[in-house]
Design goal:
By secondary structure, this protein is mainly beta.
Amino acid sequence: MTTGLEVPLDPKVLEGLPQPPTITLQSPKDFIFDPRENIVIHCEAKGNPHPSFSWTRNGTSFDVEKDSKVLMKRGSGTLVIDISGEKAEAYEGTYQCTASNEHGKALSNNIVIRQSRSPLWSKERNEQIVVKKGLSLLLPCRPPAGLPPPVIFWMDNNFHKLPMDKRVSQALNGDLYFSNVLPEDTRSDYICYARFPHTQTIQQKQPISVRVLTENPEEERSPSFMLPLGIMSTKMVLRGETLELECIAEGLPTPAILWQKDGGRLPSGRTGFHNFNKTLKISDVNEDDAGDYRCTASNKLGSEQHIIKVTVKAAPFWISAPRNLILAPNETGILTCRVNGKPKPKINWFVNGRPIEDAYEDNGPKIEEDTVILTNVQSGSSAVYQCNASNEFGYLMANAFVSVLAEPPRVLTLPNQVYRVIMNNPVLLHCASFGSPIPTITWFKDGQTNIKNGDPYVIHENGSLEIIVAQPLHSGKYTCTATNNLGFKENHVFLEVKEPTRILTQPKYRLVQRGMSALFECKIKHDNTLVPTMTWLKDNGELPDDQRFEVGDESLTIRDVTDDDAGTYTCIINTILDQDSASAMLTVVEATPTPTIVLEKPDSPTDLELTDQMERSVQLTWIPGDENNSPIQKFLIEYMDLLHQPGVWVNLTEVPGTSTTAQLQLSPYVYYTFRVRAQNEVGYSNPSDPSAQYRTNPSAPDENPTNVKGAGTEPGNLVISWRPLTGFQSNGPGLEYKVQWRQKDVEDDWTSKNVVNVSQLIVSGTPTYVPYEIKVQAFNDYGNGPEPAVVIGFSGEDLPLSAPDNVQVTVPDSKLAKVQWEPVSNPSVRGELKGYKVYYRRVRGQHNPQNEADHQEQVLTFNGNCSEGMLPGLQPYSVYNLFIKVFNNKGEGPPSPNKTFETPEGVPGPPSFLSVMNHSLDTLTLKWGPPLSNNGRLTGYTLKYHPVNTTNEMGPVKEQTFPANVTTITLSSLNISVLYKFYLNARTRQGSGPDISKEAFTTRDTALIHSTIQPDKGPTEPPHTTFPTQSLHLPLHKVPSVGPVFGTVNTSVSEEGPVISWEYFGHHKSLFVEYVVENSDDEWKRESVNGTHSHTIKGLKPGTSYWVRVVARDGANLAVHETTKVLVTVPAVPNRQVDIATQGWFIGLMCAIALLILVLLIVCFIKRNKGGKYPVKEKEDAHQDPEIQPMKEDDGTFGEYSDTEDHKPLKGSRTPSNGTVRRDESDDSLVDYGEGGDGQFNEDGSFIGQYSGKKEKDTHEGNESSEAPSPVNAMNSFV
């Protein structure tokens, strides 16, 4: 069976070979065309003879010649359809091209031709959307379905894109989502646009108007999802496509979106987050991307999650498509059509476009799912086979021809080619051939020696011969022969191995006085058959064009040196095969001083030679380079292993600087080449040129693998691992390892297995966790390595079987317990005993059995084979439950039976709070809360207190105790205006807990202001409640001092407003009277009252009640002290009748009117005396009321009006008979009467103005007619 012959691209070979058709170019499967352009459907093919073309449309033959609008390109199957003046829809359909010649038929894909479409938006009328501030909002787009689908975007009437952010975003389907609306979202021009890419047209939706109500805004809320809905949804995506998932949430504040994949990570490099993290995109999807994707929306009030279950399906995709076969007669070949998909694709085979079952009656090829086996093919049976793989998501089709040829061998490589190579480099000799059956290539040297595939030769599959390290002895004539059952052909090539070009004497550093000459030498050695070319460079550029620079055969001379001549000079030797270079610096100095000795690195050693060649040693000699004014200290010898590590130099040994030879110890099976570096005080020289290659013979390994280990990874196995030998350590070809093992302390033979190119071996079927003796020995084709050492390893562990017994608990104090147990037996551990874990949990408190148990289970680990441990940090007076597990490397064993124990009482925690209330002259009321942690049965409280003077000195301490049920106490007989400090703690039978402290002042000589103060009344004295003196202890928390307080606060009402008076004994100077309307959410207004003890609040609204308070503030404007707020009512102003005739303004107005009438009478009198006449028409019109005139019925214009000072009627206006024109109330244009006010695009893309409604007027329009036409009606009359 053969896989077929590759046809070379050589035109001379192809010219005479018959070849079935091959499709070389075709249009895509889904082809959408622009109806404004011609339809071009590509179909190109090659073959010998050149194929002819035919088409089918919708499964039936398509006669191209009968349709004058369809043209098939000459020599091609490409169709050009002229659709100008035709209905493009008539040419939609499914097309398929067939390329045929006498050797077979090749088919194109089914090409679906569809016209691009950009339909109009359906007519709709959008009502204004009114939404309350803070609520979510969805503006639907619902674009028309185009082909291909349109690109959606939102803009306003000015064609500005609407800004998108975390709060406002566009979904994948084009809808616009608001997580919460704000007042600035109010607008009347939310317009959705659809751009159709093929036709480059844009359609728009009718504008959507949104108005946001700011009254009673929506309160803050946790997120919920707007898209998708519910807690779970599904998504299917095809392999290779881009997965797009989106989650859009509403909430206030705006939620943030976070994506994650349950049970895995999002793929790196293919994952992108878009649309402000609301859209997750994963490109080039594969099967591993299926699973549950979780999007989490969160804000400060909570979070919400949605799970999207993603399934990945796959249209058919190639694993390996069938390839063309060229077979010789009577050969057998196979065509494979390897595809995959989800669901699994169905594969159908065709030959020359017919189902393969119909094409062969009998003796046809054998079909095995994705494989066609062609047996004993014969001349004339060439054909094109089609593989069609399909599932519900698509199909793949591939053509592969089978050409049956009988061709004698041909050698395609040009004859008598000469290959030249520099010694120690690889070389490749070519022997390209063609024939059917495939020729066999054989190489000969000098016409005699049959070259085998092996060191130093490698024969490649294409027939080329490679010499890895070319040596002079490899020079000569090489012959390749190509042979099959139809003939024989040979070709000759020649190989010349040349010596490398080397610079023997390198240019040296020169320090030259100005005006003197500088000489650089560059002596070379090269192959006699190669012509070298020497080039000199200065600072990597050409030499200056100056006669002072003289270039000799092996030197460069610079005459009359100047400062500009300083620099680096490089000698480069080139041949057609290689090159070498060396550089030196020129320094120019003054002529008089003696030059300073310059120390440099030594020059490289030269002339390396190998002598005394032995099996494991060789002697290396060399010639040292120039020391450059610093004696050579030592030589470093390096080697390269051309067989195992070509290109890598390794330090071998060092010798003193006085030596020029070294005896080198070598290893077997290494292709050595050496080089030498010299070192002086300045540093190492450049390495010498490599020596000739020296190969040592193979031998058995000298060492075995290291780091041998044995450890099981699962119950029932043993993994033996080691560090393998390097190629250098192998000492020969065929390196393998002999792995041996047996159970320790059992009379068993060694079990062994030989392995190669691995570093571990897994032994199955072993007992659980038993010791094994292990050995790993290296061997190669030349023998075994030394006897290996025995290493002890253990087979795999399993979970422990037993639980610890006899668990005992003793409790030495209220926070510590000692646990003891009986260890498990060693066999039941079934692994390495790592220790014991004690799991314990507080069940409840003893003083309150209803207490909730601790949900958090705690665990303490005790390593090693121990039998007891201590549990610290327990809670006193509690019931605990515990159990113990033993564990090994595999995991934990079963738990011991539960053990319950109790902890004794302890001292309580501090009281939960301590506060001071009802400050008065000599009494203070204290209130406190019980401890958060009683740690036992509470027996009472202890209170200690003492006065503190202004120097913070303490007075005598007094102490009182109280029973556990007392949490409030009033202390009497205290000093007036004195600071007291209080300490309170709680007690159990075990003692007192920590203190809590508090400081407070008694007042000076007046009562505290109380919660209710009526106008004109002082504060009411509250009743003093006292309790029996008892005691408690509290934590020593520093609490700020209460400080001085206000004295009596009184209120009254004067004609100017409420009057408030107070007494204040504090040191804060910033005092304010603050007030606010009762039952109002307004902020408190304040007026500064520094340095006073009373204040009148002016300008308050009569008949309204206000809350009033006095506040002392510090420098940071923070309230330090304040009185209780007082309710004050401002009396209503009495309704007093005012005689208007006695008012001064009225008298003045009457006088002005009388004067004006007198002036008018005088003017009329003068005019009458001059003979002036009034038109009758004016007299008639003077008695008419000015009214807005109706629209003219003849020309449809409006009645327009001007100011009374302008008597020129406007164009198209109707003038009243009194000769005046009433001025319109506004200068609004028609645009002001529209809903949205802006022009819009009609469905056909034209721009029209749309207006509706009448603009509201802010002023009265007098006696205007109620039937005056609106601008809308006027506009409609024109449309």
